[in-house]
Write a structure and sequence with these properties.
It comes from Cucumis sativus. This protein is of the alpha/beta class. It is about 30% helix and about 15% strand. The protein has helices spanning about 65-75, 90-105, 110-120, 145-160, 170-175, 215-230, 260-270, 295-305, 325-335, 360-375; strands spanning about 5-10, 20, 120-125, 160-165, 185, 190-195, 205-210, 240, 245-250, 275-280, 285-290, 315-320, 340, 355. Helix 1 crosses helix 7 (about 260-270) and helix 4 (about 145-160) packs parallel to helix 10 (about 360-375).
Length: about 375
């Protein structure tokens, strides 16, 4: 049992006998400004590919056209899919792509090497949802995963502890996945809950519940209502309430309207310095200014599983979004496991490997499950917390 005064053990009458509820309103994770961004990869990774800085924070500053232009430029930079394919690549483009693939080779091509590195260790799977398990679609409410993908994830979860880590609200992503044996980390890791169904890796009768930004809920709800009202004049804009964070989707907004949308968002957020604005793929993300992200969620889940200080753990994180870079960076810093970026376009990343699209993710997961089924190696012992 933990000695952390912020951890409360409470009884539950559900199928989960105990729940660990963590409240951190007085914790040092809260700060007045956004956390320092991670450093980018070395310039030796080759130039010329799409440079999308993971660290870009759309900081709220006094009104000004220059600031709005910066926002719009950043919105364009975070949308590599707007680049139209050409019948043939120029020599320069081919060299850039080859250079990027040299440093971030296909996880399918390198599958045997990944397995060799994991031998004797416990693999723990972390999966983003949108763009990783499901295709990116115009309507975020229709980002359904296929039955084949669901079956594949279910099979993987039988062999390895598996978590879904998404910017979506936890109950919404659970509604898409519908697998009770998984861990779910919604709102970019600010809403974490353990399995609700028997799992080979569920710790006894305990279930984890972690919500480090609970005190921001009234503010998030207020900003959500204001953003819905403010952006309704922009055709195609959609504001999504992810409980502990908000998403302003502009995938269906004409590019000439992006500046108008950025101004609308800015006009609302200027009164809420406790919130920060970042961006993903065709989406603006509004989150509390706390030291918490998908990388922190990965560390928390590893600790909950008893692997925090273990040398025999092998985390594998697969994601397609800029927010997944925080998890890729943590994995690199730990020197354990690998990050896998899902992208058809070369872009700056701390991931070690790449996959092009969800169909390749499913292929990789299927091969992983098949390898585990064939493996005769016993599971390594699990460290004790």
């Amino acid at each position: 049992m933990t000695n952390n005064p912020n951890v409360v053990i409470s009884e539950s009458k559900s199928s989960i006998n105990m729940a660990i509820t963590v409240t951190v309103s007085n914790s040092s994770i809260f700060q007045a400004t956004a956390q320092k961004p991670p450093a980018g990869p070395s310039s030796t990774t080759g130039g010329g590919y799409i440079s999308i800085s993971r660290s870009t924070k759309l900081v709220q500053q006094p009104d000004g056209r220059a600031r709005i232009k910066t926002w719009v430029d950043s919105m364009r930079a975070s949308s590599p899919s707007r680049i139209k394919p050409t019948p043939s690549l120029s020599d320069h483009d081919h060299d850039n792509n080859s250079s990027w693939m040299l440093h971030h080779p296909s996880a399918l091509d390198m599958f045997d090497q990944i397995i060799d590195a994991s031998k004797g260790k416990q693999i723990v799977m972390f999966l983003d949802y949108d763009g990783t398990l499901s295709p990116i679609v115009d309507d975020p409410d229709r980002a359904f995963m296929s039955d084949a993908m669901r079956k594949t994830v279910k099979t993987v979860a039988r062999s390895f502890p598996t978590a879904i880590v998404s910017g979506r609200r936890r109950d919404k992503v659970y509604g898409f996945v519908r697998l009770g044996e998984l861990y779910y980390a919604g709102s970019h890791g600010m809403d974490i809950k353990g399995p609700t169904k028997d799992s080979n890796y569920k710790k006894c009768t305990q279930s984890v519940l972690f919500q480090p930004a609970s005190e921001f809920l009234p503010m998030i709800d207020q900003v959500y209502k204001e953003l819905v009202e403010k952006t309704k004049s922009t055709p195609g804009a959609k504001v999504e309430n992810n409980k502990f964070c908000l998403s302003v989707h502009y995938r269906c907004v004409e590019e000439k309207k992006w500046s108008e949308l950025a101004q609308q968002v800015k006009s609302v957020l200027k009164d809420f310095p406790q919130l920060r604005l970042t961006q993903g793929r065709k989406v603006l993300e509004i989150r509390p200014t706390i030291k918490w992200d998908k990388g922190k969620a990965l560390e928390f889940l590893l600790e909950s599983l008893g692997f925090n200080n273990c040398s025999d753990v092998f985390p594998v994180y697969i994601g397609d979004d800029r927010t997944d870079e925080d998890a890729f960076k943590i994995i690199r810093e730990r020197g354990q496991g690998f990050g896998i970026l899902v992208s058809k376009f070369p872009k700056e990343t701390s991931a070690s490997y790449s996959l092009r699209e969800p169909s390749e993710v499913m292929n990789f997961l299927q091969r992983l499950a098949e390898w585990k089924k064939r493996s005769i190696l016993p599971l390594p012992g699990q460290c004790q917390m």
